[in-house]
Amino acid sequence: MAERHFHHDVFGLAALSWNESKSNDKIMIERDDGLVYADRVSHYFPDDSFEFKGYREGLLKYIQSPVLDIGCGPGRYAYNLWKKRFSVMGIDISRRVLQICSDLSSGEIPVVQMSINRLGLAAGHFRTILAMGHNIGAVGDLIGLHKLLGELHCLCSSDAKILLTSVDVTQIPDATYRAYFLNNKLRNRYIGQETMRLRYGNHFGEWFNWLFAAPDDMESIANRQGWTVEEFAINAKSPEKYAMVLGKL
Ligand SMILES: C[S@@+](CC[C@H](N)C(=O)[O-])C[C@H]1O[C@@H](n2cnc3c(N)ncnc32)[C@H](O)[C@@H]1O
Q1: Is residue 113 within 8 Å of residue 93, measured between CB atoms?
Q2: pLDDT of residue 9
């Protein structure tokens, strides 16, 4: 059996490797109940056919500069918005993905290594916050979601929008996959919480929590932090996935 190595930035390692060699884009996700499933890191790279895939293209109409992409990854959204002449800044916890995002734009997309759980940005400036790819889930739990939405309220202008995607775990069609979330109640956890770690080749990351807030919970927490739901869309191909646009109350 191959030796296992701990790596603090497995996603960044996979992204960098894919960017350089295009040979292995398979990243494995191991859940704390033992289930292992695959994702493709290439999926998070920009391509030529930008759209808010699976959702109404109308979401694009909510985007105004300056845009802050929280957890931008290699730049699937940031790069394409920059190409469309939006002013966009990316933050991510991984310096590797930020380097890729910056390089793709020849250094024109400003990027800052920062956790969405420890934002350190000046108040009052951004008009659009992007949390695509279910990235708002990096808050880990409902308390983190309260904190982030409250902080984003301060970071944004009065006409700002937050565009986010997430999953309603009660609508997941695969019963085995859904059962994990239903079991969260027995574990005294919020239903939409997932504990996992990433693996790329023989590199393993730390265990972490990801939050999938149900649409009603997302809305009520957003309301308490000064946001209102302006649009809600269900993904036509995967009805458990949703997009939400929040504006200031
Ligand atoms: C699944 S990718 C999504 C990237 C992008 N939002 C997209 O939709 O293509 C998740 C990204 O979130 C970043 N990330 C994970 N936890 C984070 C945190 N606490 N703060 C900021 N970024 C984080 C990862 O490094 C990774 O680049």
Answers
A1: yes
A2: 98
Pocket probe for ligand 1: among 70, 93, 148, 164, the residue whose CB has the most ligand atoms within 8 Å is: 93
Count Cα neighbours of 56 within 13 Å in the Cβ-side half-sphere: 11
Q: What is the third-level CATH fold of 54-194+209-248?
A: Rossmann fold (3.40.50)
How confident is residue 187, by pLDDT bands cut at 50, 70 and 90? Answer: very high
Distance CA 183, CA 60 (A): 37
Whole-number pLDDT of residue 199: 97
**How far, in Å, from the CA of 1 to the mean position of ligand 1?**
30
Q: What is the Rg, in whole angstroms, of the alpha carbon atoms belonging to the chain?
A: 18
**Which percentage of the chain shows pLDDT scores above 70?**
95
Is pTM beyond 0.85 here?
yes
CA–CA gap between residue 244 and residue 136 (Å, rounded): 11
Token representation of residue 105? 């734009």
Give domain limits for the chain. Answer: 54-194+209-248
